[in-house]
Design brief:
Layout: E1 5-12, E2 17-18, H1 21-26, E3 27-35, E4 41-49, H2 54-57, E5 69-76, E6 79-95, E7 101-110, H3 130-139, E8 146-150, H4 172-183, E9 186-191, E10 198-203, E11 212-216, E12 227-232, E13 238-245, E14 252-256, E15 268-270, E16 276-280, H5 288-301, E17 306-313, H6 314-317, E18 326-330, E19 338-350, E20 353-362, E21 365-367
Length: 374
């Protein structure tokens, strides 16, 4: 069990620096949301008196520049973990006329929000595959500490300039997210490992690797979470069927796309049997590689059938549970024990308290492994 947790706050335009002690003492709560499916975000709440210098300093923080970066670091014992590297997008001040206290709420998103400020519609990318376009776009934001980590597509599709030239549509963030969706991939910015740095990941949801220590349920003194419930949704699983057109006969050939890949292995031994079949008719107009990528995109979004939601106290769990990684579950029974993919985590931090809400998923019942990391 952890006895000491320290939260550090850095703020500033472009390059964040440690805030004065008065600002840290005025911070009453912090909420950080990380996970797949949307941009990571945060909310900071400050409370101060009307006579405090913070009454003038904090509300005008948005006037320093077009955006203010915020870096939150949690130190457990001697191990620092960067929880968030983002920018402020909204602020709200609520004065209390009864006690003279004011509450300032700062809302923001991860640093990828700076990629959503300017449109570059019409910019051509001749003879550039998706991976090259993503890396080129992310490199423009190296000043914000972004390092691109681009996983090549399983089925590369290099456009021939005489056939078609890809054109940029919308902002950098919108365009990268659309390309990720077309390839069945995800895009997110993971803060760290050092403050001021972040990894811009574009690739498949990696459901392999070293699992985090197990979440223990119904194990008396070894129970390390507050609550955990599971649900089984067999109707969510879908098997897409794409059509590849024969260039000689012009006859479309149906090809079913599996949702199991080397980076998305089965985490459950018994998959749902009543899987739906989705026929993607529009893929007949695409090239074979683009048609397969469209099928992989649908398969990746509907592969999971087992879901779990719970809450834990970091002080008791002994470490910070991280999203987009594997974690073990013990004590929930034969059907639901085993490894899970952590889809999302919400951090709730107050003075003397650090709790997390989490969401888990996997693609079947019954564990494929006899043991999980303790």
């Amino acid at each position: 069990m952890i006895k000491n947790i320290t939260l550090s706050l850095l703020m500033g335009p472009v390059v964040p620096i440690p805030v004065p002690r008065a600002v840290t003492e005025a911070l009453t709560s912090a909420t950080i949301r990380t996970g797949t499916g949307d941009q990571d975000g945060f909310q900071l709440t400050f409370t101060f008196s009307s006579r405090s210098v913070l009454n003038t300093l904090l509300p005008t923080i948005g006037q320093v520049g077009p955006f203010i970066r915020v870096v939150l670091i949690a130190t457990l014992g001697a191990t620092p973990t960067v929880l968030m590297d983002g920018v402020i997008t909204h602020q709200q001040v609520t004065p209390n006329v009864e006690n003279g206290q004011s509450t300032l709420t700062l809302d923001g998103k991860d640093v990828s929000a700076v990629m959503n400020l300017q449109e570059f519609t019409g910019l051509p990318y001749p003879a550039m595959p998706i991976e090259a376009r993503v890396a080129l776009i992310v490199l423009k934001y190296a000043v914000f500490g972004m390092i691109p980590l681009v996983i090549p597509s399983l089925f590369p599709d290099v456009p021939i300039p005489t056939d078609r030239i890809p054109i940029h549509e919308g902002t950098d963030l919108a365009y990268i997210q659309r390309m990720a969706q077309e390839a069945g991939y995800v895009f997110y910015v993971d803060p760290g490992p050092a403050p001021g740095m972040s990894v811009a990941y574009w690739g498949p949801e990696i459901k392999v690797g070293v699992a985090q220590p197990a979440l223990n349920v119904n194990m008396d003194a070894y129970t390390n979470i507050e609550s955990l419930n599971f649900r089984y949704d067999a109707e969510k699983k879908t098997i897409p069927v794409v059509y590849v057109q024969n260039q000689q006969t012009r006859v479309p050939i149906p090809i079913p796309i599996p949702d199991i890949t080397p980076l998305n292995p089965p985490l459950g031994a018994i998959p749902p049997f009543n899987s739906k079949i989705a026929f993607l008719d529009y893929t007949a107009r695409l090239s074979p590689m683009r048609a397969i990528l469209a099928g992989l995109a649908v398969a990746s979004q509907s592969s999971d059938a087992v879901f779990g939601d719970g809450k834990l106290d970091v002080m008791r769990y002994g470490r910070i549970l991280k999203a987009r990684q594997l974690v073990g579950v013990r004590g929930a029974g034969l059907a639901y024990d085993g490894l899970y993919y952590v889809k999302s985590v919400t951090h709730h931090i107050k003075r003397g308290e650090y709790k997390q809400d989490f969401s888990l998923s996997r693609n079947g019942l019954v564990s494929i492994t006899p043991v999980v990391p303790a």
